[in-house]
Design goal:
Translation, Eukaryotic Peptide Chain Release Factor Subunit 1, Chain A, five-stranded mixed β-sheet, alpha+beta, 15 strands, 14 helices, Bact_RF_family3, 60s Ribosomal Protein L30, Chain: A
Length: about 375
C-alpha cells in the first residue's frame, strides 16, 4: 500500500467519469480501539446506497461496492491501520491510504474526488524529515506535530551504514574490523595496527555523510520539499553541514546521540524546531491576505475567488479546516450552492476551488478555524 504523496493526489484529483467516491475516517492502531473501525467504515459506505440503487445496471459501479465490502471484511487490514484512512474509488481505480494523523469521518460521492482533507494532510508547513545520523548508521523519519514514522530506506539507494557507502575495496576491511572490535573491545588506536588509520576513518565517515546527503536530497528532500532536521552529535553536525548540498536542511538541529531515543521523544524534539517556522509562516500568510484585501488583490467571497481562480490570478488560497460548502463549481460565472446535502451527488465548493487553484499553479493552505482571517471560510491572495 503506497503512502499518499502530492503526486498521488494529482492523480486522484484528475478527471474521472462520475460518480467518484471518497471516504475518510479516523482509525486506531491497537485493540480494542480498532475493533470498532470496520463498523464505522461500513456505516459511512451505507451513505452511498442511493447511488448503488441508481446504478444497479452498471457493472463498474456495482464492482466498486463489492470492493468496499471486501475491504470492510478484511480482518488483517483493520489490524494494521494507523491514525486515519482515506479511500477513493472510481470506475478505473480503488485506492486505499493509511494516514498518520486522524481525519474526520466523511463520505462524499460527486463528479470528482474530495481531496481537501488530504491537502491539509500533505501541506508542508508542519511536516518535516528527520535524519538520525551517527558515524555508522543513518535513519530517516517523516513526521509532523502528532506522528513520526520511519522511512524505509531499502526502497531507494540510501546507505544505511558506513559500510554500505564505502568503495568496494574498503568494505571487507571495515566489516572485518567491526567484528574485531566487538570481539576484543580495542579502540581505534589499537586497530591502526590492523591496516586502518584514524585519518582513514575520518575520510570514510565523510564519504558516508556525503553519500547519505546525496541520497536523501535526491530521493526525499527535492521531491517532497520538506525541511530536513539533523539529529546527531555536535561534532557530526559540523561535518555533515560542511559536506551537505541539501537546501532543505534547517539551521537548527538536535545535537545529541539520537540513535537510541524513543520515537515519541524524537518527535517532540523535532517539533520544537519546526513549530516556530510553521507559526511564523502562517502568521506571514495571514498578514499577506490582510494587506492584499486592503489593496484590492485579496478576496473572501467564493464567487469572486472562483472568477479570479479561472483567470489565473490566485497565488494563495486559504481554506478553513473542516468547513464544507455543499455545491459545485460549474464554470467561471456559475457556482451552484445547496442549502443541505440532500442530493447524493453533491461535492464541496471549497474542494472544487482548491483543485482549481492548484491546477493554475497556486498554493493552498488549510487553516484552523480560530486562525482563519475570513468568516466565509475562504480567502485568497492574488498574484496581481
Amino acid at each position: 500500500m503506497a503512502a499518499i504523496t502530492a503526486k498521488q493526489l494529482d492523480r486522484i484529483g484528475g478527471d474521472h467519469k462520475p460518480p467518484v467516491f471518497s471516504v475518510y475516517m479516523p482509525t486506531h492502531r491497537k485493540h480494542p480501539d480498532n475493533a470498532q473501525d470496520p463498523a464505522i467504515f461500513k456505516k459511512l459506505v451505507q451513505e452511498f446506497e442511493p447511488v448503488r440503487s441508481e446504478y444497479v445496471g452498471d457493472e463498474a459501479i456495482q464492482a466498486i461496492f463489492a470492493k468496499f465490502e471486501k475491504l470492510a471484511d478484511d480482518f488483517q487490514f483493520w489490524q494494521h491501520t494507523r491514525e486515519g484512512l482515506a479511500v477513493f474509488a472510481t470506475r478505473e481505480s480503488f485506492d486505499v491510504y493509511r494516514l498518520t494523523r486522524p481525519v474526520k469521518p466523511l463520505a462524499v460521492v460527486a463528479d470528482s474526488a474530495h481531496t481537501k482533507p488530504l491537502l491539509q494532510y500533505l501541506q508542508t508547513s508542519d511536516r518535516y524529515h528527520l535524519l538520525v545520523l551517527s558515524t555508522n548508521t543513518a535513519q530517516l523519519y517523516e513526521g509532523d506535530r502528532y506522528q513520526l514514522d520511519e522511512v524505509d530506506l531499502s526502497e531507494v539507494d540510501v546507505p544505511e551504514s558506513m559500510i554500505d557507502a564505502l568503495d568496494h575495496e574498503l568494505r571487507d576491511l571495515h566489516a572485518t574490523l567491526a567484528a574485531y572490535r566487538t570481539a576484543t573491545n580495542e579502540d581505534w588506536n589499537a586497530r591502526q595496527n590492523h591496516g586502518l588509520k584514524k585519518t582513514d576513518i575520518d575520510n570514510d565517515i565523510e564519504q558516508f555523510f556525503r553519500a547519505v546527503d546525496r541520497a536523501v536530497t535526491v530521493n526525499y528532500s527535492i521531491p517532497s520539499q520538506l525541511p530536513l532536521i539533523l539529529a546527531a552529535l555536535p561534532e557530526h553536525h559540523h561535518l555533515f553541514r560542511r559536506v551537505s548540498r541539501n537546501k532543505k536542511l534547517v539551521t537548527d538541529g538536535i545535537k545529541t546521540n539520537a540513535t537510541g531515543l524513543p520515537k515519541d521523544e524524537l518527535r517532540k524534539l523535532a517539533w520544537e524546531i519546526i513549530e516556530p517556522h510553521h507559526t511564523a509562516r502562517l502568521n506571514d500568510i495571514i498578514q499577506q491576505f490582510r494587506q492584499a484585501a486592503t489593496h484590492g488583490v485579496g478576496a473572501d467571497q467564493i464567487e469572486a475567488i472562483v472568477k479570479d481562480a479561472y483567470d489565473g490570478k490566485v497565488g494563495v488560497l486559504l481554506l478553513e479546516a473542516d468547513r464544507f460548502v455543499p455545491g459545485r463549481i460549474v464554470g467561471r460565472d456559475h457556482v451552484v450552492f445547496h442549502t443541505e446535502k440532500a442530493d447524493h451527488l453533491v461535492d464541496d465548493v471549497l474542494d472544487d476551488l482548491a483543485e482549481l487553484v492548484l491546477r493554475q499553479g497556486g498554493e493552498v493552505w488549510i487553516i484552523p478555524r480560530d486562525r482563519m482571517p475570513a468568516s466565509t471560510g475562504v480567502a485568497s491572495i492574488n498574484r496581481y
